[in-house]
Amino acid sequence: MEFLVGHYNYWIFVFLMMLGFYVVVARGNLVKKIVGLNIFQASVFLLYISIGKVLGGTAPIIVDGGGPATYSNPLPHVLILTAIVVGVATTALGLSLVVRINEAYGTIEEDEISGMDKEP
Amino acid sequence: MRHHVILRVIAKLGIPFIVLFALYVQFHGDFGPGGGFQAGVIFGAAFILYALIFGLDNALEAAPMNVVVAFIAIGLLLFAGVGVAALLLGGNYLDYGALADDPVAGQHLGILLVELGVGITVAAVMIAVFFTFADRGR
Amino acid sequence: MIAAHYAALQVVAPLIAAPLCVLLRRGALAWLVTVAVSWIALAIAIQLLVQVMATGPVSYELGGWAAPWGIEYRVDSVNAFVLLIVSGISAVAAPYAHHTVVREIPEDRHYLFYSAYLLCLTGLLGITITGDAFNVFVFLEISSLSSYALISLGGERKALTAAYQYLVMGTIGATFFLIGVGLIYAMTGTLNMADIAARLDPVEHTRTVLAAFAFIIVGLGLKLALFPLHLWLPNAYAYAPSAVTVLLAATATKVAVYTMLRFVFTLFGADFALDVTFFAEFLIALALVGVFAASITAVFQNNVKRMLAYSSVAQVGYMMLGVGFFSVTGLTGGIVHLFNHALMKGALFMALGAVFYRLGSVRIEHMRGLGRQMPLTMFAFVLGGLSLIGLPLTVGFISKWYLILAALERGWWPIAGLILLSSLLAVAYVWRVVEAAYFRDPPPDRPRATEAPLALLVPTWILTLANFYFGIDTSVTVGVAADAARALLGEGG
User: Fold this and answer.
1) From the CA of C250, how many Å to the nearest CA of chain A?
2) Element (H, E) at A120
3) Entry pTM
């Protein structure tokens, strides 16, 4: 029980990761795949942020020469900020590809596209 | 959106404050939470809101596409340029301490300029992404 | 004074040039900038390699922050060699790009193409040079995002689906890698590679570290197209613009292989990796299955670019085979094959790009009779093909020689036999092109093709002749690779 409750952040991470991964693999709609990819990436953001958290800690900002005694690790936040930006860029690029695929094929369903791409 | 008076009035009232808040987040970033990424996104959101309420054509008139794309490059160049400036002044790449005689002042100046570069690029990218998608298939 | 900053400039030069291309807005100017920067990058890479071979690893602290806290760029013999490969290929591919880009890409996008090209180069060089685990992820995404955009510029609509597929697979791979790095950070509290290597020992046998290892191997396996995670590669290479195919085929998978070497040997250490049950055996099995499956698929391809793309998957198998031996000879073979494969695939894809420039197609039935119409281009293709097969005097022979030696060293002679057998498959698919080009009449409905312009032929032949030069004089390549292998296995050097 302790194992289950004490690691609840990991369980959320694993659940979201698998959920996102499943959507990417199982859905044929290209936009839904991008949504799945986003959930998948967001799960990793949660993993990083949650392992940097110190219970009772605050932001490590020095006020009037003295900092807080306990503070959460700020580094994961910085790393994840970068990863979020990467995620935004990936989403934008992915969606723009979907728009152009829609213009070129007239559909965004994977099976219909691969049907059209069959070598004659 | 011509007829939605409430939306237009609220947007007109709100957008200056959003931009102001973006600038606050931008330049307060070296004392407290904030910085170029967040400020750029807020600034971009103000613009996107304007485009949503007042139409894409008005927004494109205010910020033509090639100007926005140029700002993406300018922000990145500012970032990289600060690094090179530090290098030319005798420090390592991005060593802000070398930017001024007093290392603390140098750090301050460096992070300010770098975050400004980040802010410009992020805002321009956000606006460019929105314009590109909104302009497609019209 | 500038010599102290080579490590930073290696990445910063293309990084600054990329936005510059956007501001210039003229395709021809952007191309000039790209060529200039590629050559500068090559000069810096050569300087770094000389420096490393003379005085040992070079360390550079970005922003002046000392190593475990700040981001450190660290160049040793392993990545100096990879930097040389990446910048060298780019220095040849950038001049080559001009004609093919004019031919294949709408004119208003030329400057954006070069900008993305330079960002891709920045990313590839950055992955290689950095000594910070998270920084690897950032540069990995810079190079990947720009390569998705570059691939989608290909002429056919299949380029779009190929780029999309690569985007999904590449993002999954990069995110897996990110999870692995996060778990390592949770266990060691550091992101600096050297520091991780030092702190990983006491926690080495926890499940977290094992999970991190698995995530990183699978994530990088996706990026380097390790069989069976290679499905994105054939389409991405086949439908990308010619210049992009040259750059990606010759460098992108190599950099991913390098990253895997770095993580397996420097961070986790060979002992740890060998302790993981069946890791080496698993790698060797996947590599061999990959070599055969991909080579057999290549034989049946009618699009020659796709054929060579499958052959790339097979060649990645050889590199992984070298890793799987966990011996100095095996690693030397794997690392030298990074270089050699870049040379041969660069030359082959460049020759194909020239064919595409004249014919507008690289399908095998359209290439009939081309041997007489484009003699220089097709002869370069044949020589590149011989190198791919592994004929003596070519670089392909050198890599296979070391791999076979490594197999015999371990007493695994069936593997040596399989390596030889797989070369026969390479003969089969190269022969199909040769037969069509030299022993068939040109299709009557095809207008007579003329020899490719000099701007395409010169880079093609530079790489083709390099295949022979480095196949005969192996002192530089094998010397550096052996040094790198010893450094990775921790036997000095």
Assistant:
1) 24
2) none
3) 0.93
